Design the sequence.
């Protein structure tokens, strides 16, 4: 059977409803990793849904308990065909965020697939059950069409990504030989636009911290003490204004990368960001001056205030509050050391007259930044395969704007990382009414079947480009 016939076969898998049937079965399993009571269900997703699926495809499976207390389990499925073939690791996560059942639009449920036009509603459709279901189906189609993959395949499914992937780094560190591969090819996150296939090669890091001004015990009447007592909310607001301009330009220059590499700039500077229907309108004057929108989100660092509190916002009283706090975040690219963020901030605040503002790192570990060079041969190969299937030039993003546990694969295990997302930016990921677009799912099945077919026929010089 030919490549084209394999693509036609997977089109039929979508068109006759089998994809929707498989996805509906998986979405119905409430794998909420943020709910400690769901641990048995996380194991069930791996043991009762994933493992039988992989074993029917000729994979050997094993389930690993999480080395971190309270973390969800992992499944590794392996199919070894020939030591002369490249080995490909494919990653996905079976856990989802909380369902927020009562907040979905009338007629929708997080645990039931509902199709409304192009939208396939259900928790996990976009993140990540729909995405790894596409890749599993593509592998199965190549096997059915050719009788073999033509490469060695490992699939890793974790169940704790939505709680920060606890234990993933330790598991892979302690079993590096088991998880070793020549390349990572997997799917998560959004496309640049709904109609344009996308490849991203890493992810920006995420560093969270708190700013706190704690001046005294208890509040004091604003009539009697206003004008006499320092207001922590005002102090903290001014401290934040010293960190970023009114248009969001970062003023702590030590937080910023030393320019954008030419290969990265060439890949992103002309990209047009399109979040699809319901996406917010981009503010063109926000952020670093002189950069395109794509450069700002895929190749630069940003500072965000995620929450700000002083006094009692739900029930304000006539009192000068004793304390103000802000939860902040730096999204950062490769080329800066996150361990220097708070020391540099301390020097900045002191220099600007804010010694009373304390900065404290979030107790959760930060997510490191990763980036494969866009000139890597794996990128060229994957782009050509997708172009051959779809007739479209894929967008190449050196780094996803958000964060993923790609550091485990890129840095710890030392492999090139190719991510081919099957969602889009307005999918309501992590919110009520999460959905996948049927049009993206169908095209994703086509291009992944073509990509895995090509991997077994005409891989790049994989020994040279790792």
Sequence:
């Amino acid at each position: 059977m030919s490549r084209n016939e394999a693509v036609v076969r997977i089109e039929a898998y979508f068109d006759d409803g089998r994809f929707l049937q498989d996805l509906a079965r998986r979405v119905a399993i409430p794998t909420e990793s943020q709910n400690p009571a769901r641990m048995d269900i996380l194991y069930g997703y791996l043991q009762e849904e994933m493992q039988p699926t992989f074993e029917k495809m000729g994979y050997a499976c094993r389930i690993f308990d999480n080395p971190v207390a309270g973390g969800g389990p992992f499944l590794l499925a392996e199919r070894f065909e020939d030591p002369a073939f490249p080995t490909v690791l494919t990653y996905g996560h079976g856990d989802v965020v909380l369902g927020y059942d009562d907040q979905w639009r009338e007629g929708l449920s997080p645990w039931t697939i509902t199709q409304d036009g192009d939208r396939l509603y259900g928790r996990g459709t976009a993140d990540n059950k729909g995405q790894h279901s596409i890749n599993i189906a593509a592998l199965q189609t190549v096997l059915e069409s050719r009788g073999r993959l033509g490469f060695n395949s490992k699939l890793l499914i974790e169940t704790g990504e939505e709680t920060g992937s606890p234990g993933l780094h330790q598991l892979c560190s302690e079993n590096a030989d088991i998880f070793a591969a020549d390349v990572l090819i997997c799917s998560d996150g959004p496309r640049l636009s709904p109609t344009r296939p996308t490849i991203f090669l890493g992810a920006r890091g995420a560093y969270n911290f708190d700013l706190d001004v704690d001046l005294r015990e208890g509040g004091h009447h604003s009539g009697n003490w206003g004008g006499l007592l320092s207001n922590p909310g005002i102090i903290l607001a001014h401290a934040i204004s010293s960190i970023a301009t009114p248009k969001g330009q970062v003023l702590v220059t030590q937080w910023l990368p030393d320019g954008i590499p030419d290969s990265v700039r060439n890949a992103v500077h002309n990209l047009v960001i399109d979040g699809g229907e319901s996406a917010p309108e981009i503010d063109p004057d926000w952020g670093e001056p002189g950069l395109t929108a794509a450069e700002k989100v895929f190749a630069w660092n940003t500072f965000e205030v995620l929450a700000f509190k002083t006094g009692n916002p739900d029930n304000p009283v006539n009192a000068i509050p004793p304390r103000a706090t802000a939860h902040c975040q730096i999204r950062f690219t490769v080329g800066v050391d996150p361990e220097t963020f708070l020391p540099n901030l301390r020097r900045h605040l002191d220099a600007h007259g804010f010694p009373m503002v304390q900065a404290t790192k979030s107790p959760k570990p930060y997510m490191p930044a990763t980036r494969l060079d866009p000139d890597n041969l794996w990128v060229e190969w994957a782009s050509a395969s997708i172009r051959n299937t779809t007739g479209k030039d894929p967008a190449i993003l050196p780094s996803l704007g958000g964060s993923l546990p790609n550091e485990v694969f890129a840095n710890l295990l030392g492999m090139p990382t190719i991510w081919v997302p099957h969602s889009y930016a307005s999918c309501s990921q992590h919110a009520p009414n999460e959905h996948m677009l049927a049009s993206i799912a169908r095209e994703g099945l086509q291009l992944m079947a073509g990509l895995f077919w090509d991997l077994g026929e005409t891989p790049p010089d994989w020994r040279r480009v790792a």
